[in-house]
Amino acid sequence: GFTLALMLGMAVFVMGAAAPNQAEKVAQKMLDFDKALTQATTQIDATLTSMNAIPSASAADMASKYKDFTSQVKKLQSMADKAKSQSQKSAAQREEYLKQWQASQAKIQNPDLQAASEARRNELMPKIEAIKTSLGAAKETFTPFMQDLNDLVLYLGNNLSAGGMTGAQPLMEKCNTDGATVKNDITAGQAAIKDLANSIAPGGTTTSK
């Protein structure tokens, strides 16, 4: 009898240990995504800096400045793809975690604990929505921003001259504006990611008991 009770006790302990472990993984995936977003933001700056260096370059330097811009645009696309991949992994793990939470919550018999668990879950949902909203906005702005950068690469490649600079100026200004908007949306998304990761991670901050 004692051995069976001990084994049952250990089984409960092991089952209980899985949830914090899962929460830790979810939080870590989100922080990986946050890191990828930081790299993408830094690369947006580098790309715009290289773009803005072309019009003021001397005739002798213009080709090398253009080459640098082309290379930065490629790098930005690569980092954006990496961030997208991290976003998908992070979202998939988060959804799986919430599904498991809902399933285990349904098994709680004590009404007070059930209510507390429900309150805790409800506290996290707006944080998840905040991530979706800000990153959704970032994605909407980023897609045409990236297209505009690629258009500049193609246009300037065939027209690297004073006249070409004049023609490119309006789109360059638009890229500077859109780049700043994308960065603001990403920053808002990162704040929301850190907030949720900190709330989910074992020992993280929480307003609910």
Walkthrough of the structure:
- The chain has 209 residues and is mostly helical.
- It is 89% helix and 0% strand.
- It has helices at 2-53, 59-105, 111-157, 162-200.
**Terminal Cα span:** 36 Å
Computed CA radius of gyration, to the nearest angstrom: 24 Å
Tell me the structural class.
Answer: mainly alpha
- Order of helix and strand elements from N to C terminus: HHHH
Can I get a quick summary?
By secondary structure, this protein is mostly helical. The protein has four helices and no strands.
Which short descriptors sum up this protein?
about 210 residues; mainly alpha; about 90% helix; elongated; disordered N terminus
Helices and strands, with pairings:
Layout lengths: L1 H52 L5 H47 L5 H47 L4 H39 L9
Helix pairs in contact: 1-2, 1-4, 2-3, 3-4
